[in-house]
Specification:
Chain lengths: 224, 251
């Protein structure tokens, strides 16, 4: 039997106003355990697809089905956001709290976690991204790599089984990239990762797609 | 621009429950604003100085902030002393400076500074997240709280973007002059700033929504009203009552 379908986009069309259609008749399925990569030129629709899945923008037509339910309105996406972790391209967009611990606590607090449990989550999440001891630092004073790892920690703190990662390795040094690849190795995770880094995609994904003229197409990863 | 210089510290004031600090700041500001007597205004300023001393703030930052306020107060001094009828103490051309005018302006100056000091001492020591949280507890409508928080949040962003833009200008050899080119450049900067701030705000909202934000801020650290808070509230309330009585007696 095939694994459970998590994300199912059917005949989705989307275009930003006053610009030509960006995604044409997009069909995309992510099953439990799938590790999918997305590659392609800037502005080809990769980020847009992730936004559609999270309900941050709504398709012009077509259907978005996540965890077996059709998602149309804002409130349909509330539980989607609880269960899918989304890493933004720019970590500065993602971090807005005055301290690292509050930053990590933001998600868990929204989901009703309190007190000691939250403290434990903060500790565990920081350890997973290698930022132990950063608890009381100020997020916007961190370096680029630290910010990205913190952003990753804020998402892991919500214990998602599904991740959408938008350029997680952009501008990061090799050890940090490897750290992120290691996090993704955790068994049971399913994810879509947008990246221009072919080596990273080779290591972390089993299938890679690209957009050609707004149409989702399999991408052949060059082998040496 | 918006740096929370005063929010970190461990003074007596910093340790008071933010809810009490906010209520006190409002009550004291209102009382001092309606004072109509010079000697009571001095007492109001005295109370403000007590708060600010207890808060143990960095004197340089504090003076700088007061300087800004007093530039506006200076405007009063240019006009008000000359616009009261009474005993002339100085004549400049057709203008007469009166004793009543001077005393009135002095009272305004004292009241202004007292209110600023009280708000710096009590409110600025809270930090924005605490203020937001406290307002939540004080049953302020959620929408107002969000407005306040986002103004704060985006002022940060605007400031940061502004710094980035001026840096690029410097790198590209821009020097402000009195010329069309300069005005046009400033126009573009303001335009770009608005657009960038708007887009950034959109992104941040998206990020918040993705992390389960549903319109309510939860805070990690909860306020607990301790005995020392009750004591502080009592003392501050007593001070407020004394000022009210004095004002009423001297009326």
């Amino acid at each position: 039997m095939e694994n459970r379908i998590i994300i199912d986009l059917k005949n989705v069309n989307f275009g930003y106003r006053e610009r030509p259609a960006l995604l044409k008749d997009l069909n995309f399925v992510l099953r439990q355990g799938d590790r999918v990569g997305m590659i392609g030129p800037n502005g080809c629709g990769k980020t847009t697809m992730l936004y559609l899945i999270m309900g941050l923008i709504k398709p012009n037509d077509g259907s978005v089905e996540i965890f077996g339910r059709r998602r149309v309105q804002e409130h349909d996406f509330v539980d989607v956001r609880e269960r899918i972790g989304f890493l933004f391209q720019n970590s500065d967009d993602q971090l807005f709290c005055p301290s690292v611990r509050e930053e990590i606590a933001f998600g868990p607090l929204n989901f009703g976690k309190r007190g000691k449990e939250v403290e434990a989550i903060i500790k565990r999440s920081l350890a997973r991204v290698g930022l132990d001891g950063f608890k009381n630092r100020v997020p916007y004073h961190l370096s680029g790599g630290e910010k990205r790892r913190l952003a990753m920690a804020t998402i892991l703190a919500m214990r998602p089984r599904v991740l959408l990662l938008d350029e997680p390795t952009l501008g990061l040094d090799l050890p940090t990239v490897q750290r992120i690849a290691e996090i993704l190795e955790e068994p049971g995770l399913s994810y879509v990762v947008v990246s221009q880094n072919i080596d990273f995609l080779k290591r972390t994904t089993t299938q890679v797609y690209t957009f050609e003229d707004g149409v989702l197409t399999p991408f052949r990863v060059p082998r040496k | 621009m918006i740096e929370e210089h005063f929010s970190e510290g461990n003074s007596v004031i910093h340790r008071i429950d933010p809810r009490i600090r906010i209520i006190c700041a409002i009550v004291y500001s209102a009382i001092i604003a309606v004072i109509g007597n010079l000697s009571v205004a001095f007492i109001g300023l005295g109370a403000a100085i007590v708060f600010i001393t207890l808060a143990q703030l960095d004197a340089m930052h504090l003076l700088r902030r007061l300087l800004v306020v007093n530039v506006f107060v200076l405007m009063f001094w240019l006009v008000l002393p000359f616009s009261f009828s009474g005993d002339t103490i100085l004549s400049v051309g057709p203008l007469n400076m009166t004793q009543q005018g001077v005393l009135y302006t002095l009272m305004l100056t004292l009241k202004c500074n007292a209110i600023i000091l009280i708000n710096v001492g009590l409110l600025s020591t809270c930090g924005m997240f605490n203020v937001v949280h406290a307002l939540n507890h004080l049953r302020v409508p959620n929408k107002l709280i969000h407005l306040l928080f986002f103004i704060f949040r985006f002022s940060h962003v605007m400031h940061y973007e502004y710094a980035r833009l001026t840096d690029t200008l410097k790198i590209r050899g821009f020097r402000p002059r009195t010329s069309m080119h300069t005005y046009r450049t400033y126009g573009s900067i303001i335009g770009t700033l608005l657009i960038r701030a708007y887009e950034r705000s959109e992104q941040i909202h998206r990020a918040m929504v993705c992390r389960g934000f549903k319109g309510k801020y939860w805070l990690l650290d909860h306020f607990v009203l301790r005995r020392s808070d009750v004591l502080a509230a009592t003392i501050m309330a007593a001070g407020a009552v004394i000022i009210i009585i004095l004002q009423w007696k001297t009326g």
